[in-house]
Amino acid sequence: MGFRMPRIINAKQILRMPFSAVDQAASTTLNVPKGYFAVYVGEREKKRFVVPISYLNQPSFQDLLSQAEEEFGFDHPMGGLTIPCKEDIFIDITSQLSRS
Fold first, then answer.
1. How far apart are CA 48 and CA 62, in angstroms?
2. N or C, which terminus of the chain has less Cβ within 10 Å?
3. Is residue 94 part of a domain?
4. For residue 16, what are the β-bridge partners?
5. Contact indicator for 49, 11 with CB cutoff of 8 Å
6. Which of 61, 56, 81, 57 is nearest to 71 (CA)?
7. 71/36 Cα distance (integer angstroms)
8. pLDDT exceeding 90 applies to what percent of the chain?
9. Is 25 a member of any domain?
10. What pLDDT was estimated at residue 28?
11. By C-alpha distance, which of 99, 89, 83 is closest to 8?
C-alpha cells in the first residue's frame, strides 16, 4: 500500500502568497488550501506565508513558534500566527524543510 506526496517545484512560490491590507478582511481562510496554514513573518512589515501543517512537527519550525510565544504569547497583532523573524531566515528554514 502506498501513498503520494505532492511535489514542491518552487518553495518560494508555494510558500509566499501575496496579502494586502485590502484582502485582509476578506481572506482569512479562503486562500489557505487544506493541509496548510497561514503565518505572518517579519520584524516590521509582516508578510503572509502559507506553509504545510507537517512543518509543525519539525524542530526548526517549533523554535520559530517558541519565539512567537515569547514575543506575543497568544495575542498576535495580525489576528493570526505571527513569527517575529526576518523573512529571509524564514524562507531559508522552510526551504530546508521542504527538501527533507
1. 18
2. N
3. yes
4. 49
5. no
6. 81
7. 23
8. 31
9. no
10. 53
11. 99
In a domain, 31, yes or no: no
Whether the predicted model's global pTM rises above the 0.85 cut: no
Question: In whole angstroms, how far apart are CA 71 and each of 33, 60, 78?
Answer: 28, 17, 13
| Burial bucket for residue 84 (CB in 10 Å: 0-12, 13-18, 19+) | middle
Of 26-40, 47-61, 62-76, give the lowest mean pLDDT range: 26-40
How many beta carbons lie within 10 A of that of residue 61, not counting itself? Answer: 20
DSSP state of 81: E
Nearest to 86 by CA among 44, 56, 48: 44
Does 9 fall in a domain? Answer: no
Domain count, the chain: 1
**Helix (H) or strand (E) segment spanning residue 38:** strand 36-41
Domain that holds residue 60: 38-100
What region does 2 belong to: left with phi over 0, alpha with psi -120 to 50, or beta? beta
Residue with cell 518560494: 12
